[in-house]
Write a structure and sequence with these properties.
69 residues, mainly alpha, elongated, DUF2909
């Protein structure tokens, strides 16, 4: 259950950073932080999600679906 909460929280964090980057791109102000900062956070969050899922499958915390249909 904890793994699902962490993955869900990281997905919300990714969407939040995506919208922050979009707002910076639309405002186009010279004193705003660089858009790549938020895109980089989104990339790191997706890498953490993949590693977290792989570790959870390897340790047996979650089990993949045995039949795809």
């Amino acid at each position: 259950m904890l793994i699902k909460i962490l993955v869900g929280g990281l997905l919300i964090f990714m969407v939040f950073n995506l919208f922050k980057a979009m707002m910076i791109m639309l405002k186009n102000e010279p004193d705003s932080p660089p858009m790549s900062k938020f895109i980089g956070r989104r990339l790191i969050a997706s890498a953490v999600i993949i590693v977290l899922i792989l570790l959870a499958v390897a340790t047996g915390l979650i089990t993949p679906n045995p039949r795809p249909y």
